[in-house]
Amino acid sequence: xxxxxxxxxxxxxxxxxxxxxxxxxxxxxxxxxxxxxxxxxxxxxxxxxxxxxxxxxxxxxxxxxxxxxxxxxxxxxxxxxxxxxxxxxxxxxxxxxxxxxxxxxxxxxxxxxxxxxxxxxxxxxxxxxxxxxxxxxxxxxxxxxxxxxxxxxxxxxxxxxxxxxxxxxxxxxxxxxxxxxxxxxxxxxxxxxxxxxxxxxxxxxxxxxxxxxxxxxxxxxxxxxxxxxxxxxxxxxxxxxxxxxxxxxxxxxxxxxxxxxxxxxxxxxxxxxxxxxxxxxxxxxxxxxxxxxxxxxxxxxxxxxxxxxxxxxxxxxxxxxxxxxxxxxxxxxxxxxxxxxxxxxxxxxxxxxxxxxxxxxxxxxxxxxxxxxxxxxxxxxxxxxxxxxxxxxxxxxxxxxxxxxxxxxxxxxxxxxxxxxxxxxxxxxxxxxxxxxxxxxxxxxxxxxxxxxxxxxxxxxxxxxxxxxxxxxxxxxxxxxxxxxxxxxxxxxxxxxxxxxxxxxxxxxxxxxxxxxxxxxxxxxxxx
Length: 528
Ligand code: XMP
Known about the structure:
Elements: H1 6-10, E1 15-20, H2 26-35, E2 39-44, H3 49-54, E3 59-62, E4 88-91, H4 93-101, E5 105-107, E6 113-121, E7 135-142, E8 145-148, E9 154-158, E10 166-169, E11 174-177, H5 189-200, H6 209-224, E12 228-233, H7 237-250, E13 254-260, H8 268-280, E14 283-288, H9 290-297, H10 303-326, E15 333-337, H11 342-347, E16 357-359, E17 371-375, H12 383-392, H13 397-400, H14 420-439, E18 451-453, E19 459-463, E20 466-475, E21 478-479, E22 487-488, H15 493-506, E23 510-515
Parallel strand pairs: 1-2, 1-3, 3-4, 4-11, 12-13, 12-15, 13-14, 15-17, 20-23
Antiparallel strand pairs: 5-8, 6-7, 6-9, 9-10, 10-11, 16-17, 18-20, 19-20, 21-22
Helix pairs in contact: 6-7, 6-12, 7-12, 9-10, 14-15
Bound molecules: xanthosine-5'-monophosphate.
Residues 307, 404, 406-408, 448, 483, 520, 524-526 line the site of xanthosine-5'-monophosphate.
């Protein structure tokens, strides 16, 4: 079996390791390093230092963490990490650990600092602080404080509470700050981080998504060889970019499958069938399963039941399509392409290993002994980087910039039974809302704007000369960072008015448009 990412390793970019001490900040640090155009990877603090060093990092960043350095069971770090000649930058907990490990003093002073704090820079020309103001806002979150830097270190900043808020040792290339430079509220944080990378560690800002495309193409070719691969397209960004990358690497050895469940928005299926194929030249097998989904959903109003039915039918149709591809003449189909992203890999504890070999779950129709090796060319990337790769590969903006859309599609945006007529009606209303939001330049500001049909609700209206008894449409514009929490977007009244007028004028059977002004929590983003 070919080594999944060996080609990537051979030509590995200069890498910064971010050692994760259990903070929610580690991913943010990794992103900031990449924004400085230096490649970064997160490793757990439990990884032996020898293993970290075997990755040949050009610099190491120690993240913050929730512990106190003196707490029993607090994560520790082998001193060897500071003696390997690799530049190290400690932040918050990482800073304190560095201080204690190298002979400095960290006290539990009881003086806590949380949130925005004023930092006073005492050595303005230092490696970390050159060109930044002598007084700057930083984000703090700590209970312990460093009162004496280790020998050989210069104290370069302090706060009203913390005598040693930053220290630097240029000879050994070791640096640390008590605060969180990675968060937006630390006004010069990115500059300080870049100073560490470029001035402290001597790195160059050369990493781009263009390098990723080239590296991944080489890695995919090596992994797949002359076998074949399949990829399920959902219409979303991740699977589209993964497929386009693999297509570029192995051409006709890839077949994509798109299940048209009839629950997509207006124009989305055509986007995959026409625009995506035109942009990539990919071989696409479209399965028209609209009837099948409508039949399975007939008479069902309960949201959870709908989700289960849609999920079940989807897997059945997809596996049937796989089976048909497997039976075609030609080289064996041994690979399954997936658009797994870096946050998924880190969250599932997968770290930075090579692609797993997974046996495919067998729900409906595939022989038990079929195993696919996974091809996951986006495993190293964050979402915005995936969009950049998509752009680089020439995918249409409508696909690359697409907002999140749920797998069960419009099936969970019709409150009530899903029927063809209701889907068509909702598609029209949704298309109008999307068109007007795009025209008003609101696509970036709004994370997502579900348009929901309250099919089980009717209200009285007056349209033309007559009384109507139609359905309400709900607009649910939300702003969010990660969909875990969200607020309703205060969008301009004129845009709301335009959408409302157009929907009630143009969509038969709708006589009312309402705005959902509920945050999450308590409301979820989707209505079902
Ligand atoms: P909620 O409604 O839980 O949604 O606030 C959070 C985010 O997840 C999306 N979502 C789904 N995505 N399958 C998906 O692929 C689903 O079943 C599903 N349900 C919700 C939703 O659009 C939002 O971005």
